[in-house]
Amino acid sequence: QVQVEESGGGLVQVGGSLRLSCATSDRSLRYGTMAWFRQAPGKEREFVSAMQQFNSNAIVASSVKGRFTASKDNAKKTLDLQMNSLNSEDTAVYYCAVNVQRLITSRLRDERAYDYWGQGTQVTVSS
C-alpha cells in the first residue's frame, strides 16, 4: 500500500487562508500523479487540483482558480495547496489522492483514476 497523508486543515474565518500539505512515497512523487479532491456534506466529491510527476505544472478546478494554488515543496517532498480568500463554499473534507503512474490528461479530474487516498483533513470556513 502507498501511504498518503494530508495535513493543515482547520477552522478559519471567511476571507482567511490555509495551507494544506500532502505527503506520499518518493516514487509516487517522481513518477505518478497527485491530486486534491474535496467533499462537502451531502455533496459529491469534487476535483480541486492535480500535478503529474512533481513537475510544478498543476491544473486547478475553475471553481477555485485564482484563490487556490497547488505547488510542490522539494524540501519537504509534499504537494501543497495554498487556499486564500476562503468562503463558506470551501468548507469540506479535503482529500489527497495518488496514482503511482502518470495519468492521461482526460483522467486527471476523475476520482476513479486514483488508487490511493489519504484520510482527509477537515477545512471549516466560518462566517
What tags apply to this protein structure?
127 residues; mainly beta; 7-stranded mixed beta sheet; 4-stranded antiparallel beta sheet; 1 helix; 11 strands
Secondary-structure class:
mainly beta
Which sheet architecture does the biggest sheet show?
Answer: 7 strands, mixed
Q: How many beta-strand runs?
A: 11
User: Rg from C-alpha positions?
Assistant: 13 Å
Shape: globular
Q: State the share of residues found in helices, binned by percent.
A: under 10%
Sequence of secondary-structure elements? EEEHEEEEEEEE
Query: What proportion of the residues form beta strands (DSSP E)?
Result: over 45%
Average pLDDT value? 95
What low-confidence regions span 5 or more consecutive residues with pLDDT below 50? none
Structure, briefly:
With 127 residues, this protein is mostly beta strands. 5% of the residues lie in helices and 46% in strands.
Structure description:
- With 127 residues, this protein is mostly beta strands.
- The protein has one helix at residues 26-31, and strands spanning 5-7, 10-13, 18-23, 33-39, 46-52, 58-60, 68-73, 78-83, 92-99, 116-117, 121-126.
- It is built from one helix and eleven strands.
- The strands form two sheets. Strands 2, 4, 5, 6, 9, 10 and 11 form a seven-stranded mixed beta sheet that branches. A four-stranded antiparallel beta sheet has the order 1-3-8-7, with no helix packed on it.
- Strand 7 and strand 8 (78-83) form a beta hairpin.
- The longest helix is centred in the first third of the chain and has 6 residues, at 26-31.
- It is globular.
- The model has no long low-confidence stretch (mean pLDDT 95).
